[in-house]
Amino acid sequence: MPFRVEEDYAGRQLQGLRETQEDFYVFSDAAYDEQGHLSALLLILADGMGGHAAGECASYATVNGFLQGYHHQPGAVRQRLENALNRANQAVADEAARDPQRLSGMGSTLVAAVIDQQSIHWVSVGDSLLLLFRDGRMLRLNADHSFAPMVEAQLANGEIVAGDADAMALSNSLQSAIMGDALDLYDLPDAPTPLLPGDIIIAATDGMLTLTDSRTQSLLRLLTNRPASEIAKVLLASVEAEHDTLQDNTTVTVVKIPAGTTAGAAIRKGPARRKHSTAT
Fold first, then answer.
1. How far from 56 is each of 23, 39, 184, 233, CA to CA, in Å?
2. Mean pLDDT by 10 residues, the chain (280 residues)
3. Are 27 and 232 in contact, with CB atoms under 8 Å apart?
4. Distance between CA 55 and CA 41 in Å, rounded?
5. Model pTM score
6. Would you give the distance in Å from CA 131 to the centre of its chain?
């Protein structure tokens, strides 16, 4: 069964209280079946940083560079993802060099995934989310390259106390981002993760973290049988309904694996390439 736009895949955006929209995303074709139907999607999502024009330029350069790199590179999916990642990183470097006074220091997160009806391959840098919802439960697939996991562990161990201003500021900082420099930390599993009919994949920028995991999971349980476009709309409406006074840009993209497709195996995560990084 082919992927259908809006029914099986869709994306929506919320500007929040930012002056501009610094997120950028695209769906592209990744493969067609023998009948010429779309059988695999390429999803690319970026959350720009640097403020105003720099953030917009960074996310656009990241997505556009990745898109070109993936489609211009033959070979196995994993290798194409890695090559496209490097092309996206170079695109940000090239864009910053074009106008260093205005764009120096800009960067972007990235989540890019190739999704067919049996599996998902992905690469990610930064703190944007890649989620899998299956049988009423939600699982984060990709690594979080912010300092938030470290801060949460310190809170749990009593090393810091809730409300520590320095700790909270650190938790919002990134260990890795696409900035045109050497990429020392990124998530690229060696093996794809199998998918099952009815699975829902969500890629979102960190503005969606206004919702707790339990709230997002509860919403997805109610929306399981709704079209991808409606799922994206309801998630964003729920973010907006929180009335967060610092609400960030939020982008939500949704892919549903059509019912009746060949069943994949149980969820497994292949080892990811994760190098140490000193980026902040």
1. 7, 31, 24, 23
2. 95 95 97 92 95 88 98 94 98 94 93 97 97 97 82 65 60 83 95 97 97 98 98 98 96 93 47 37
3. no
4. 26
5. 0.88
6. 9
16 sits in the region (left: phi over 0; alpha: psi -120 to 50; else beta) called left
CATH T-level topology, domain 9-143+176-256: Phosphatase 2c; domain 1 (3.60.40)
H or E element at residue 28? strand 23-32
C-alpha closest to that of 119 among 190, 220, 187? 190
Maximum alpha-carbon separation in the chain: 59
Alpha-carbon distance of 164 to 143, in angstroms, equals 24
Place of tokens 């964003």: 236
C-alpha–C-alpha distance, residues 273 and 205, integer Å: 22
Per-position b or e across 246-268, b if 16+ CB within 10 A of its CB: ebbbbbbbbbbbeeebeebeeee
Q: Would you state the pLDDT for residue 183?
A: 93
The CA distance from 2 to 226, in Å, is 17
The answer to whether the CB of 132 falls within 8 A of the CB of 267 is yes
123/185 Cα distance (integer angstroms): 11
DSSP state of 17: T
